[in-house]
Amino acid sequence: MSDAHTAGHGLPDTITPDPCAPPYRANPASRFRVKFDARVDFTNGGHAAVEGFLLDIEGDSVTPPRLAEMIVSAMNLLRAGPVTITRMEVVARGAHDDAEAAPPETLASPEAVREAYGAPRVLAAAKTRDRLDAWSRKFLALSPFCVIASADARGWCDATPRGDGPGFVRVLDDVTVAIPDRLGNNRVDTLLNVASNPRVGLLFLIPGVRETMRINGRAVISTEPQLREGMRERGKAPASVLVITVEELFFHCGKALIRSELWNPGKHVPPGTIPPIGRMVAEQLGTVDPAQAEADTLAAYVERLY
């Protein structure tokens, strides 16, 4: 299955996508997908490249200009400039896997994993709850930090940190918690994911405590004024609130934190070992003054926390 560009005619092709083009929508029911190699150059310097990527298409063909629009939309790219497509091929769904066949030594099925690891311990298997209790409420009240895992409609995953004063994640009732979305850089990766796939996983930590707590559930993005006002901090309400319905909740043992010695001050790296993000990204891009980017980052840490 191919169009004129599948065989390489007219490629590579560099296209500036239409910013008003219809967004890409994943469609698991589509009969065909386009497999491609491409590079996206950013207007502020730097680029992103993908090889062997697959996107759903309507019908059995797609033009390079439309593919360029789909790439920018599907990857949620900000400040995208020209897109260079070096290869594209339309394939029937199911005719190509996203990954190569697993080698024999790979655990490639749930059954293989369970056979290799055996049954979980009785306490571990039985610990999952579907609502908050006194211990989980106490853990949330003491936790100033969590990681939110999410995925978009295509299954592309993301994990992002959230932090504030202890108890910043509010308990609304026995099966609902709320996380304020404080001022950030407007990538809004988590919110974009939740808008198309509500499933999220949360990992909560308390400094000095080896155990962690996990919540899995479904999220919605709320802009309800009263809820936002109730989470005002330093005079500023969050732009939105992530409201999560708890479906699974359980505590996780402390082995990972014990092995890593995460809370051991003697294991902390000296200040300056890793520079502020502004300097690192500026040096990666090569088009921004690293010293200025570092200064801007440090200023934002003081002036734009909320």
Taking all Cα atoms into account, the compactness measure Rg is: 23 Å
Order the strands across the largest sheet as they lie in space.
6-5-9-10-11-8-7
DSSP summary: helix tally: 9
> What is the tally of beta strands?
11
Mind describing the biggest β-sheet? 7 strands, antiparallel
Distance between the termini: 52 Å
Which CATH class of the largest domain applies here? Mainly Beta
Question: Helices and strands, in N-to-C order?
Answer: EEEHEHHHEEEEHEEHEHHH
The poorly predicted ranges are: 1-8
Number of domains: 3
CATH topology descriptor of the largest domain? Pnp Oxidase, Chain A
Q: What best-fitting shape do the alpha-carbon axes yield?
A: globular
Query: What is the average per-residue confidence, as pLDDT, rounded to a whole number?
Result: 89
What would CATH call the homologous superfamily of the largest domain?
Electron Transport, Fmn-binding Protein, Chain A
Structural class: alpha+beta
CATH architecture of the largest domain: Roll
Strand content: 25-35%
Level of helix content? 10-25%
What secondary-structure arrangement, pairings included, does this model have?
Blueprint: E1 13-15, E2 32-42, E3 47-57, H1 64-74, E4 80-92, H2 110-117, H3 122-126, H4 134-142, E5 145-151, E6 157-163, E7 170-173, E8 176-181, H5 189-196, E9 199-205, E10 212-222, H6 225-229, E11 240-252, H7 255-260, H8 277-285, H9 290-303
